[in-house]
Amino acid sequence: MTKLAPEIANRDDLSLIVELVTAGSRVLDVGCGNGDLLAALSTLKSVDTRGLEISQEGVNACVARGLSAIQGDADTDLSIYPDKAFDFVILSQTIQATRNPRRVLEELLRIGERVIVSFPNFGHWKVRLYLAFRGRMPVTSSLDQPWYSTPNIHLCTIKDFVALCDELGVHIDAAYARRKSHAPFVFSPHQSRANLLAEDAIFMLHSGSK
């Protein structure tokens, strides 16, 4: 296992993403925030990192840390990048906040040889119970804001995401499920158990044309 960087020591999802990225590769982190993942990848994997972040505050934080990041929106600005410009394109905990997730995923696959996507799983058993017994939109460790203030506008389950990949002809290289206080575990993309048990999912994908 790669030694953890302090920026991601408490984020096992980001730690796994670092493990998945090949050393010395070209990486674009879409929705890079304040640059924690970019910093970890630069330090631990010596990758050529770039960031795209919608908030100016996030971009400023990245630049202050010596990281390369520009302001941009995943829904509208991925077209600035040429085909296969990066070895890895990462979209961590962001696809559910985009206006057109299908189009965003298509763009990620166009500009990256490999795409890593993570998202909260709306099929988790706690979410199901919350809806069944309270009849209200759930608030959990992964979905930690009430419905009226959450940035999440296209929540999905693992099954939903796998169905989208099938529809687009996307090849799933690896799939990992994450549970609070548990190490991520590998699962078969069409396995229903992960859809029930996982709070979050992490997928590594590539275009079906390869």
Write the layout of secondary structure elements.
Layout: H1 12-20, E1 26-30, H2 36-45, E2 48-53, H3 56-64, E3 69-71, E4 86-92, H4 101-111, E5 112-120, H5 125-134, H6 158-168, E6 171-178, E7 185-186, H7 192-197, E8 200-206
Parallel strand pairs: 1-2, 1-4, 2-3, 4-5
Antiparallel strand pairs: 5-8, 6-7, 6-8
Distance between the termini: 29 Å
| Name of the CATH homologous superfamily | Vaccinia Virus protein VP39
* Low-pLDDT windows of residues: none
Largest sheet report: 8 strands, mixed
* SS element count, helices: 7
Based on Cα principal axes, name the global outline.
globular
Explain this structure.
The protein is 31% helix and 22% strand. The protein has 210 residues and is of the alpha/beta class. It has a single domain (6-206), classed as 3-Layer(aba) Sandwich (Rossmann fold), CATH 3.40.50.150. Strands 3-2-1-4-5-8-6-7 form an eight-stranded mixed beta sheet, sandwiched between helices. Strand 2 (48-53), helix 3 and strand 3 form a beta-alpha-beta unit. It is globular, with a radius of gyration of 16 Å. The two termini are 29 Å apart.
Task: Kindly list the characteristics that best describe this protein.
210 residues; globular; alpha/beta; Rossmann fold; eight-stranded mixed beta sheet; single chain
